[in-house]
Amino acid sequence: MRPLRLELQGFGAFREAQTIDFEGVDYFALVGATGAGKSTIIDAICFALYGSVPRYDNRNLVAPAISQNLLEARVRFDFLLGEVAYTAVRVVRSTPRGATTKEARLQRGDEVLAGTADEVSRCAHELLGLPFEHFTRCVVLPQGEFSRFLHDKPGDRQDLLVELLNLGVYEQMRQSAGSIAATAKGKVTLLEQRLEDYSFATEGARAQAAERVTLLDALKGRVIEAKPELMSLEDAATKAEADLQDKEKLHAMLGSLTIPPGIARLGVELQAAEADREAAQIAADEAEKAVDTAHSA
Fold first, then answer.
1. How many domains does the chain have?
2. Rounded distance, CA 267 to CA 140, Å?
3. Is residue 208 domain-shared with residue 156, that is, in the same domain?
């Protein structure tokens, strides 16, 4: 980040509107008597970006930043990230209970990236890659904070340096490599299990399998050849089954018939009548012969 311009009004020692121009300089020093506002400039930069004032231990404490007897303070901070210019603006107003910082915005040129206090803080964190705590320890160090940085716990200093130097990428590489290795190991284990499953596939077993395939192919050919005959036999069996069902129905019908009463006696009488008819026929034949003989005489 490279500061370009800082505008303050009603902020700390700067009751009247003040503009500090950083353009065109590579190095600069803030020089002045105690209470002139050197630390206030650092406070204003941090306030514009993160909405907090470093000199106060409480991040939510911003009301004391308003100049005495004024009701509001305004800060505008223009800065570069690479070749892109950004503008952060915040306003803090006095309230009966303290102060409010609801009015805030962060722009990239004419594009508004954030329009509320929380959004500006979050966007500044994302753009700079640093939270407020790290920003005030490595980019700007308020009075007394350098000593605190030096005396931080080794783990805290390490975390800060990892983030500053972007060393986290190596942790990501380690995790990615570990994930790839675990996946590869799983594939190797699976392939080894498959090899064990195919341990029976010796040359002799392969030859036997090939012979069985040949026999099955021959059997398949025979089945294909016999298929028309099988289909014809199946049709015949279907028809025979249908005929059998018809005969069974007819047999069932015949089985249900009963002989009427007196049919046996009627049969006997019919036989007697038939015998009488035959005797009468014989007598008629003899009488006819006698007549023919009489005529001949």
1. 2
2. 138
3. no
Answer whether 1's CB lies under 8 Å from 81's CB.
yes
Could you give the residue ranges of the DSSP H alpha helices within 73-153?
117-128, 132-134, 145-150
Instruction: Verify that 159 and 209 share a domain, yes or no.
Output: no
Tokens of 113: 């990236």
127, 224: one domain:
no
Quote the tokens at residue 18.
């003040």
pTM for the model stands at 0.49
Which position has the token pair 């231990």?
57
Question: Looking at 101-202, which runs of residues are DSSP E strands?
Answer: 104-108, 111-114
Domain assignment of residue 206, given as a range: 200-251
Q: What is the pLDDT of residues 192-238, one digit of tens each?
A: 888 887 777 788 888 888 889 999 999 998 889 888 888 888 888 89
Distances in whole angstroms, Cα of residue 211 to Cα of each of 200, 215, 218, 221:
16, 6, 11, 16
In a domain, 184, yes or no: no
**Which helix (H) or strand (E) segment is 85 a member of?**
strand 84-95
Q: How far apart are CA 94 and CA 70, in angstroms?
A: 8
Q: Are residues 151 and 241 in the same domain?
A: no
Whether residue 16 lies inside any domain: the answer is yes
The span from the CA of 251 to the CA of 247, in Å, is 6
Phi, psi of 106 (to 5 degrees): -130, 125
DSSP-based three-state secondary structure for 86 = strand
Residue 46 and residue 134 in contact, taking contact as beta carbons nearer than 8 Å:
no
32 lies in a domain? yes
